[in-house]
Structure formats: C-alpha cells, structure tokens
Input
Amino acid sequence: MKFTPTIRNNIIANFTGKAWRGIFSLAFVPIYIKIMGIESYGLIGIFMALNAVFIVLDMGLSATLSRELSRLSIIKNSEQQSRDLVRTFEIIYWIIGILIGIIIIILAPVITKYWITSVNVRDETIEQALLIMGLLLAFRWPSAIYSGGLKGLQHQVTFNVIKSGSILVQHFGAVLVLLFVSPSILAFFLWQSFAALLTTIVFAIWLWKLLPKSGYRSKFDIKLFLKNRKFASGMMGVSFVTILLMQIDKIVISKMLTLEMFGYYMLAFSTANILTNLVSPVHTALYPRLSQLVAIDMRADISKLYHKGCRLASIIILPTAITLSFYAEEILSLWIGDPIVVRNSHIILSLLIIGTMIKSIMTMPYALQLAYGWTKLAFYKNITALIIVIPLMIWMVNMYQGIGAAWAWIILHLGYIIFEIPIMHKRLLKGEMGRWYRQDIILPTLIVVTINLISREILPVDATIIMIVSVILSTLALTSIASAWATGNLNMRSLAIIKK
Output
C-alpha cells in the first residue's frame, strides 16, 4: 500500500517541523544554562512537569476532535456539524485553561514551601515564577484544541509552519529579553507567556479559516460533546494514568533531590525527549487515515498502513536513538561544554534515550488502538504499570538518584512491548504479532546495536573532535541504511514514496 500524496506531504511536513523545533530547542539550552544557571533551568523543568500533569484535564478532547473531524471529512453534508463541534470543544477548552491558571496561582506558595528545594534561588523568586507559570499555562492550553483540529483536517503543513514560527518567537525573543532586559527566570517566563498567547490566537484564526463553510453561524452544542463522551472519557482515563506514569520520575526527583540535581535530570530528559519529535510525525500523519480506514472497515489496507508506519518509525528512531545513547558523553561535551554538567548528566541521558526509544516504538500500536476507538487496553495497562512503577521509582531514586529514575523509565516501557503487544494483537490484526516483533522491531534493533558496538570499539580513546564527529555521523548513516534494509524498505519502490 502506497502512501497517498496527502499522507506523504504530511509526514514530510511533520518530520521537518519536528526536526526544526527540536534543533532550536536543543540549541538554546546551553544559552539558558549559561545566562540563568542550572537551578533556573530546573525551574523550567518544573514548568514542563506541571504542563504535562495538567494535560489530564484535556479529557481526551483534542484527540476526540482530531478523530471526529477526520471521520466527518469523508461524510457528505457534515460542514455544520464540524463547525459546531469545534465551537463546542473550543469553549470547553478555554474554560479548562482558565481553571489551570487559577489552580497554579493558588498552589504556588504551597509548592514553593513544601516541594521545591533550592540553594541559590530565593523562595520569593520561585513563587513568583510559579505565578507566571499559571498565566503561561492558561494561554498555552487552548492551542492544543486548535492544533488537534488542524491535524484532523490533515492541514498538517499549516500546523507545522505556525508551530515552527512559534518556536522562533519563543527562543529568539527569550534570549533578547534575557540579554537586554533582565537575565532572570521571571523575565524568561513572562516572555513565554506572551509567545504562548500569540501562538494560540494564530492557531485559532487558521483553524476557523480552514474549516468547511456551511452558511450558518457555528454554535455551542452540548449534544455533540455527549455524543463523543465515550471516546473522550476513555481518552481522559488513558491521559490521567499516562501522564502520571510519564511524570512520576520528575515528581519524585523534584521532591527527593535538590533543584540543581533536578536541573541535571531535566537537561537529560529534555534532550532525550527530542527523539519523540522524530517519530510523532508518523503518528500525526497516519492516525487520521487509519481512522478513516477503520470507519469503512478496510482491514487489508489497515494492516498495510499500520506495518508501513511501524517500519518507518523504526527506520527513523532506532539508528538515531541507539547511536546517541552510545555517544551520549561525547555529544554532551561538544554541545554543553561544561564538564560538571556533562559528568552529572551523560549516564542519565544515555539511559533515558533508550527508554524514550522504546516508548516511541509503541507509537503506531497506540495509534491503531485509538483508530478503533479502543481505549480500555491503554487505561488498564497504565493502571497496572502505575501500581508497580511508583514504589520502584521511589526506591531506585533513593538508591541511585537520577540514574535510578532512568532505569525505572526503561523497565516501564519494556513492559509495554512485552505485555501490551500480545494483548492488542489478540483483538486487532490477529496473526500479525510475530511480523511486528521480527521484521518491524527486533531485526533492525539487533543490526543497529551491532554496528554501534563495532564503531564504539574502533574509536580511539584520544580521538580528536573531528574524528568523534566523523565516527558518529558515519555510524548514524550506516545504521539508517542497515535498518531500512532490515525492514525491507531499502528498494526503489519504497524510496519512491518521497519523490511522488
């Protein structure tokens, strides 16, 4: 099954946009650390954790809107329903955003006093930063519903252009503010709040512009929300336990360790998490099409698109993740330059990269479950994982600090591959589990690991910077070719999907 032109364009646009945003996000990290210090960067990590925790209030609305707009796009005379659906979800989302801001503002003194431990940053500064975080979250929150709508309509090129422009405004503006106005974390968050509001407004304008015209005024219709409540509530449950799982390491470390040590962990986590930018474009581009194929029950096409997406994800994520993991210390040294930061971060980074890689491999199986509207599996497996991982995380952080948290991250996601995939394939795409394990995952992984072991062995201890960079880039190129060959995608027919 070939990718349609729309899917190909969306994959390219999503990948380019994610790569662009990831590069810029990484490029500015050393600047922020140098200007504000590692503890202030730890406060940025606190904001990232809070932002992720409050995603639970999403209630599955953005995923529901994306799914429903995809389904409505192939149904005749559904223009008014599409517009009313967006209006309904939009109003609910803005109410949620305001509530989030109020909650953070109310809890700011409590979080400052009882949760965050800092040596060099004053409590007053931390509390003020949390107050501004509340404003920032309130402004940023509604953008998710608009971006979800654009993805559902498959206007993902537009989404990526806006999002990439937003990243430029966020980072370049922040540096200018830090250099010429005030080199403080408060000035940083104030600028981010302005950039978030601007981004949300632009997303809203474009979504309403691209929605199909109906000739009638769009209106709030609670019936449309209730109609989709089953899927939305399922997504809410999945979101709740997933966010707890994804943030439990940050929650535990921010409480048990100092803000400085949390800063080192967040540096490693933020770097490793960039890997999700590589594979999420595949999910974003294929999920709407999977939903359409499920709606018309074309099983053969679903199977082909699913495995093609899994193989494409493997080709993208495995070479990059495994190579970066093998050379985490050298990359941090070239990028950050500070030997203290490198010493405290490189092992954590290497482990978190592996955990994030395993998480990324599960992207397409999760997309398949959502396309079928099956949220119970994700909910129950995450509940089970949560019961296991919380005591494990606390024990491992107490014993090994940030490194222990990174190992728990790996164990968590390995469990998904071992237990979730067999359960899923008993219901969806029966008889295709072995194909997923063998061709889509295990074979390319073994080949990429073997090549990295060889390249690591031949790299001299006293290698120059040029030699290190050359070996890393050569290894990355060779593993990419090898993984494409291992998954059966190294042929002219597969390469043609990029050209057509």
Remarks:
- Confidence is low (pLDDT under 50) at residues 491-500.
- Residues 5-499 form one domain.
- The longest helix spans residues 376-425.
- Residues 397 and 405 are 5 Å apart (CA to CA).
